Amino acid sequence: MRCRHCGELVDLVLMDLGSAPPSNSYLTDENLRSPETWFPLRVLVCESCWLVQTQDFADPALLFDADYAYFSGYSSTWVEHCRVYADEATDRLGLDQSSRVVEVGSNDGTLLNFFQRLGMKCTGIEPTASTATVARGLGLEVLEVFLDDEVAGNLVADGLVADLLIANNVLAHMPDIVGFATGCRQLLGSDGVASFEFHHLVELVSKTQFDTIYHEHFSYLSLAAVEAVFSSVGLTVFDIEQLTTHGGSLRVFAQHQATGGFSLAPRVSAVRSLETGVGVASPEYYSGFQERADLIRNEFLAFLLTARDEGKLVAAYGAAAKGNTLLNYAGVDSGLVAFVADRNPVKQGQFLPGSKIPIVDEAEIVRLRPDHVVVLPWNLREEIAGHLDYIRDWSGTFVTAVPQLEVW
Predict the structure, then answer these.
(1) Which residues pair with 9 in a beta bridge?
(2) Dihedral over Cα of 67, 70, 75, 81: its sign
(3) Average pLDDT, integer, range 251-268
(4) pLDDT 10s digits, 283-325
(5) How does pLDDT run across 32-77, given as a tens digit for each residue?
(6) Closest C-alpha among 359, 394, 393 to residue 376
(7) Which H or E run contains 52?
(8) pTM of the full predicted structure?
(9) Which are the contacts of 26, defined by CB distance < 8 A and separation ≥ 6?
């Protein structure tokens, strides 16, 4: 395989998870007994530009189809994150009602709607029909396309230019990361700012967050790799914020290399130094990850087997993509985890891909009173534990598997 960014041959393996179905390909009653499509799931490291990436197998159109089931507005933690960002970006960048905000990967419009409420002109770019429909219900303009350099050129020709371009948790989803970055640069006004959020590779590796690996995530990003990609298309990073979202993320602010007016902030050098210090640009940094992930898997599976043997009822909460990676890698099915509850009504009544565990309304937790509730989106564990605190009434406990098994 050749690197998606620099084109060099790639053969250093971070982790091989065997195979799995696409993590957001939920099953209905109709297709529950039909064969599923499973793809190999291997992650490789480019030793030239240090872009960490999945090996190519799955078609992006299959992963991000019309029935895409992830909706960002169902997490109160994420909604608040979006609200704060909109207020802070407006103040910092001096945005007003004459400003145009373009969000790439606008999903259900949760973030973009906050800018709309502030009176700004807003355009979403979102390829999945299910989420785009919800965003349009908020009165947002949404273009239902995959962004690349050709699409961006057409949009610019039609007059779309961004004062602020946002792409949160999108960069990692792009198989053609260079074409996507080029498209973002084309849409950005000459003195505009582009803001990108992504799960930080340093957090993934240091905390063995292997369950964030799935086919929809084509790349696993360090600042070093992102700066290399951006530099190749004429963008430069001028500031960074370190965030707690998704288990540890970076928010980078970028501008045109030739016309950007912001000076380099000290926080950029600080993150560069952090990555240099841990050795992101060295093969040794990635060794041992597979073994640590296998240990997490084995401890989780042992816990579930013991709970079954003791007659305990185990349920899960949050039909999240990361949970599907964990369950399928551990070989878990409904014999070990009876059901998973989720707030999203689009997912309720369906089944998790691979494991075929039924997805139910939260009322089933109250009705069946499980002894243990596995929190699959562990990055939202405090929000979820607060919401489900009533399981303490029957001495129920919460369980998280990553970064280590914890019963609490």
Answers:
(1) 2
(2) negative
(3) 96
(4) 999 999 999 999 999 999 999 999 999 999 999 999 989 999 9
(5) 888 999 999 999 999 999 999 999 766 666 655 555 556 777 778 8
(6) 359
(7) strand 52-54
(8) 0.92
(9) 69, 319, 347, 350, 351, 352, 353, 359
CA angle 286, 270, 186 (to 5 degrees): 85
How far apart CA 18 and CA 288 sit, in angstroms, is: 17
**How open is the CA angle 360-366-372, to the nearest 5 degrees?**
85
Half-sphere exposure of 48 (CA within 13 A, CB side): 11
Give the type of residue at 390: Y
- Locate 97 and state its tokens: 């009602």
Whether residue 350 contacts residue 236, with contact meaning beta carbons closer than 8 Å, is answered with: no
Give the other-Cβ count within 10 Å of 56's Cβ.
14
β-strand pairing of 406-407 with 397-400: antiparallel
Omega before 60 within 30 of 0, i.e. cis: no
Q: What are residue 102's DSSP bridge partners? A: 123, 165
Quick one: how far is CA 341 from the chain centroid? Answer: 20
How far apart (Å, rounded) are the C-alpha atoms in residues 317 and 391?
12
Q: 3-state class of 39 per DSSP? A: strand
> 159: exposed, middle or buried (C-beta count within 10 Å: 0-12, 13-18, 19+)?
exposed
Cα 61 to Cα 39: distance, rounded to the nearest angstrom: 14
- pLDDT-derived band at 93 (thresholds 50, 70, 90) equals very high
